[in-house]
């Protein structure tokens, strides 16, 4: 029987630090496992508190014009954009009936007296503007401003305020809505989506792993490694929380990536362990060989994924930076699980992970690689055309604004917003605010603004204007002070269509004095502009860093270039899928979401970084097998065929499980979560099949010896 202790002859094989580290893990396996258990328990304690410390970060651009405008409004006029709204419906009659008006005024005053509320106004207290009254007269709005950060508003004020006010009265029915309430409902639904998906994924992943490994222990250990990665990742996040804010949505990425990467990395190591045993090595040498070869691949893979996510630090948004922290943390957890803990497990119970019988080596992938390399232009050309066709919907990408329609139809805040969207002529709660430290006659300026397409009304100290005509008296108390400001109320159609263009149109009008443009539409415009402006930097960093990682692994300048081009094709297919499905609305009935004709910029940027990193994950694994064979034989075609034969089955299995992990989120209630799940599943499947099985061998055959330029064939003899 093979022992788990390294023999004297094995010490002569120790030529690399990773191999020596593998033998160390074998000798100290009990200590390693004890420390791993202690680490898991401690990390579990920290992870339990991490979720409660995550913040409800807003989509905002710090330092932008809209951000400065909000600061000026609060400092000089004690006001700002409404944080939420209450939709008030008359149980009988209209909102203009005397009894309903009296009840509405009393309700407005009661909201204003609630703790945390700085400002409350309504149709009845603002002189009955048409923008706060539904066209049929049955509904009116109460607008509320709640100062403070998102955690204060959504976690402290709204949970107390909303249930109290929505009780309504004998004459009034009251429902809550507005951006803050929509976001407050989104967070718990997104958490439910991920927890429900994970409950489905765990048993399915076990079944798939068992079908691939044919041993229960070999199927269970990778799942436990995924759990280890998730728990350790959350524990690391709890430490990061001491220094910065992290969005609560980072928890979702931790859960999604943790299981997938943990399984992937462990499969790489277990597969190599089995190969080493099959080649006649004892268990200690097999573990050391697995750490040396598969461990090196896993480390490069983890570095690639982490580097891809780290470029999000180049964006000045806490929301997106949160995903960088989460991704790097969960990659660290996966690396510890696969390179440190798993070898100790293999040294202890590795025999239970070996196949019960030696199966003949699969020849399908070897034969496929040889067929592709005999006609590389045909196969490579057809694969490229297919991928370009699948990616073509991306050409119609339109960035827009996320709203309540990311929620399911039964969500209460969405139902409120649907009534407002259909029944009100304008969106007073989402007005564009023009703030100035100077004051003077603004009548002409307000009149010009009111004639702009998409503007329903302009309110100012000089009066209210619609289509260039003064339709109401000015409100000096509201608009005049240490300067002046104007409220440009967009029409419902403009806000639902392209509010960013409306902001640009308003900013293009020459003011009588210097103004800052703020309000919700301007905030979205500045946020989107900041992302788009920095997108070239993000892409350059992502491509540059991953190029460097692949160069360090292969010592080739050509292989990283080809890998980058293939990953761009994979990303194109992913973006084509999310545009076709979520922007254009195909499959909306099946998936149960409401398309808006645009995509919010934040989620695609996040998916870009995650998908690119995961694509490089499989590229690193396959290239490492090809490079190892090329170093041994110097035959490029044989290296590709053998590398594909040994690597493709594992890549397909790992890719299928990771795709399943993401695809489970297609059943989510929140459209953002569905988009992440569907897009990532498509990217992983395309990458693990067409890219690796067809494009890799065809391009490597076409490049020939140039693949390894400038390094050429390694001179180190194979062991």
Automatic annotation (TrEMBL):
This chain's source organism reads Nonomuraea insulae
| Family of this protein | Belongs to the resistance-nodulation-cell division (RND) (TC 2.A.6) family. MmpL subfamily.
Domain SSD: start-end pairs:
215-348
Q: How does it sit in the membrane?
A: Multi-pass membrane protein
In terms of Pfam families, this protein maps to:
MMPL (PF03176)
Enumerate the PANTHER family for this protein. Answer: MEMBRANE PROTEIN MJ1562-RELATED (PTHR33406), MEMBRANE PROTEIN SCO6666-RELATED (PTHR33406:SF11)
Q: Which residues cross the membrane?
A: 194-212, 219-243, 249-270, 298-317, 323-355, 376-395, 535-553, 565-583, 603-626, 647-666, 672-695
SUPFAM superfamilies associated with the record: Multidrug efflux transporter AcrB transmembrane domain
Answer yes or no on keyword Cytoplasm: no
Q: Which UniProt keywords apply?
A: Cell membrane, Membrane, Transmembrane, Transmembrane helix
Q: Can you say where in the cell this protein is located?
A: Cell membrane
Classification via InterPro entries: MMPL_dom, Mycobact_MmpL, SSD
What highest taxon heads this organism's lineage? Bacteria
Q: What is this protein called?
A: MMPL family transporter
């Amino acid at each position: 029987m093979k022992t788990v202790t390294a023999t004297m002859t094995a010490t002569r094989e120790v030529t690399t630090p990773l191999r020596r580290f593998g033998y160390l893990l074998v000798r100290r396996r009990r200590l390693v496992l004890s420390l791993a258990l202690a680490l898991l328990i401690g990390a579990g304690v920290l992870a339990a508190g991490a979720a409660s410390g995550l913040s409800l970060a807003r989509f905002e651009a710090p330092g932008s014009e809209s951000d400065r405008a909000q600061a000026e409004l609060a400092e000089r006029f004690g006001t700002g954009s409404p944080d939420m709204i209450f939709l008030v419906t008359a149980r009988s009659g209209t909102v203009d009936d005397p009894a309903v008006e009296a009840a509405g005024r009393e309700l407005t005053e009661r909201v204003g007296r609630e703790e945390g509320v700085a400002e409350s106004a309504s149709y009845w207290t603002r002189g009955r503007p048409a923008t706060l009254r539904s066209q049929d007269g049955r509904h009116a709005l109460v607008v509320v401003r709640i100062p403070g950060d998102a955690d204060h508003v959504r976690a402290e004020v709204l949970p107390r305020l909303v249930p109290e006010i929505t009780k309504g009265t004998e004459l009034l029915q009251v429902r809550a809505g507005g951006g803050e309430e929509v976001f407050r409902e989104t967070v718990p639904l997104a958490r439910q989506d991920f927890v429900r998906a994970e409950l489905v994924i765990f048993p399915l992943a076990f079944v798939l792993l068992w079908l691939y490994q044919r041993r229960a222990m070999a199927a269970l250990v990778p799942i436990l490694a995924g759990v280890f990665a998730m728990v350790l990742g959350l524990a690391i996040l709890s430490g990061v929380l001491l220094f910065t804010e992290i969005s609560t949505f980072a928890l979702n990425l931790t859960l999604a990536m943790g299981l997938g990467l943990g399984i992937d990395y462990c499969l790489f190591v277990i597969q190599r362990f089995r190969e080493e045993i099959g080649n006649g090595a004892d268990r200690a040498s097999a573990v050391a060989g697995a750490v040396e070869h598969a461990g090196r691949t896993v480390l490069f893979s983890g570095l690639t994924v982490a580097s891809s996510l780290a470029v999000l630090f180049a964006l000045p948004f806490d929301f997106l930076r949160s995903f960088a922290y989460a991704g790097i943390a969960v990659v660290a957890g996966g690396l510890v699980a696969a390179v440190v803990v798993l070898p100790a497990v293999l040294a202890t119970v590795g025999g239970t992970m070996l196949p019960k019988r030696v199966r003949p080596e699969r020849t399908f992938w070897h034969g496929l690689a040889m067929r592709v390399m005999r006609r590389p232009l045909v196969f490579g050309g057809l694969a490229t055309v297919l991928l370009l066709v699948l990616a073509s919907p991306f050409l119609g990408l339109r960035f827009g604004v996320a709203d309540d329609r990311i929620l399911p139809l039964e969500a209460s805040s969405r139902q409120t917003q649907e009534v407002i969207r259909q029944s009100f002529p304008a969106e007073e709660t989402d007005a564009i605010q023009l703030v100035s430290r100077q004051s003077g006659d603004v009548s002409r300026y307000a009149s010009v603004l009111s004639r702009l397409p998409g503007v329903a009304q302009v309110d100012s100290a000089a009066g209210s204007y619609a289509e260039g005509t003064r339709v109401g008296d000015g409100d000096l108390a509201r608009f005049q002070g240490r300067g002046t400001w104007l409220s440009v109320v967009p029409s419902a159609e403009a806000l639902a269509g392209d509010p960013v263009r409306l902001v640009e149109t308003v900013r293009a009008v020459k003011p009588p004095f210097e103004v800052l443009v703020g309000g919700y539409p301007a905030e979205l415009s500045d946020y989107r502009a900041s992302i788009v402006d920095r997108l070239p930097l993000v892409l350059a960093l992502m491509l540059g860093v991953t190029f460097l990682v692949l160069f360090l692994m292969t010592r080739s300048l050509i292989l990283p270039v080809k890998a980058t081009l293939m990953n761009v094709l994979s990303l194109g297919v992913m973006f084509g899928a999310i545009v076709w499905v979520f922007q254009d609305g195909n499959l909306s009935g099946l998936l149960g979401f409401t398309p808006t004709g645009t995509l919010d910029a934040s989620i695609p940027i996040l998916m870009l970084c995650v998908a690119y990193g995961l694509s490089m994950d499989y590229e690193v694994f396959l290239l490492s097998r090809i490079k190892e064979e090329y170093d041994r034989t110097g035959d490029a075609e044989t290296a590709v065929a053998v590398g594909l034969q040994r690597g493709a089955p594992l890549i397909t299995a790992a890719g299928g499980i990771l795709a399943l992990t993401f695809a489970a989120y297609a059943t989510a209630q929140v459209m953002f979560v569905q988009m992440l799940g569907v897009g990532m599943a498509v990217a992983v499947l395309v990458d693990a099949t067409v890219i690796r099985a067809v494009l890799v061998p065809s391009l490597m055959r076409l490049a020939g010896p140039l693949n390894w330029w400038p390094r050429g064939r390694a001179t180190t003899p194979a062991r």
